Amino acid sequence: MDIETRKEHLDRRINSAARRVGREPSEIKLLAVSKTRSAETIRALAALGQHAFGENYLQEAVDKINQLDDLDLEWHFIGQMQRNKTAAVAENFDWVQSIDRLVIAERLSAQRPANMDELNVCIQMRMSDEAGKGGIAPEALFPLADAINSLPGLVLRGLMTIPENTTEIDRLKRIFRKMNSLYSRLKTRYDTVDTLSMGMTSDFELAIEEGSTMIRVGTALFGPRNHGKSSIR
Ligand SMILES: *Cc1c(COP(=O)(O)O)cnc(C)c1O
Questions:
Q1: Which tens digits make up the pLDDT trace of 74-100?
Q2: Which CATH number does the domain housing residue 74 bear?
């Protein structure tokens, strides 16, 4: 299947999921997760009207951002971030969705160049005990959000989560509902908050039914990723 056909199928599935629960499809933003994909592949998808792209690996991302400098694209960093990599993130991205420590937010704030727009940030939530995914527990959300909200150079836009790897619909639904309820509370507190980033290839329809405003899709758009032996990609 070519990328244009994949995109059409995906758009149709997004539309039906939204309509099923009485939402406007335009309320749901599609982030194309382009980790491991070439600049040329991204260019082909951009030519079909896709504007927002998500990347996990900093050096790979910066290379592609530079190669695609002639296009007006929106770049989201969605990977785990080491403390010594924040400057490159602050200098190259429009959004960071994977904030789970204040020190990272403070560094991004200090390192965001003054001539760029404010960096849009989402707090990454860990909604179950499964280790290794990153994110903060729900109890830690409001103190971190308050601290981030007071940092110059950053705008708090919302929440992101990567749910545990499960095919149990009821578990996923419970996680998405809890996320939506935290998101509603955050929204009443800060008027900059408008983004609930949840849903990937395997679960975006359920996420849309449960209130997601941004789905992050790789495989359904680009096809399966090649898993190299020495890589977690
Ligand atoms: C890779 C990735 C995705 C996309 O995953 P697919 O299953 O390929 O759609 C979404 N979010 C994050 C944080 C990712 O790392």
A1: 999 999 999 999 999 999 999 999 999
A2: 3.20.20.10
Q: Of 6, 33, 159, which is best to mutate to test ligand 1, by the most ligand atoms within 8 angstroms of its C-beta?
A: 33
Phi, psi of 58, rounded to the nearest 5 degrees:
-60, -55
Long-range contacts (CB closer than 8 Å, 24 or more residues apart) made by 196-200: 196/158, 196/159, 197/31, 197/97, 197/122, 197/158, 197/159, 197/160, 197/161, 198/159, 198/160, 198/161, 198/163, 200/33, 200/162
Report yes or no on 231 lying in a domain: no
Q: How confident is the model at residue 164 (pLDDT cuts 50, 70, 90)?
A: confident
Split into its structural domains, the chain has a count of: 1
Q: What is the pTM of this model?
A: 0.96
* Per-residue pLDDT tens digits for 120-138: 999 999 998 876 678 999 9
Spatial separation of the C-alpha atoms in residues 197 and 200, rounded to whole Å: 10
d(CA 29, CA 208): 10
Ligand 1 atom having least distance to the Cα of 160: 13
Atom index in ligand 1 nearest the CA of residue 217 equals 9
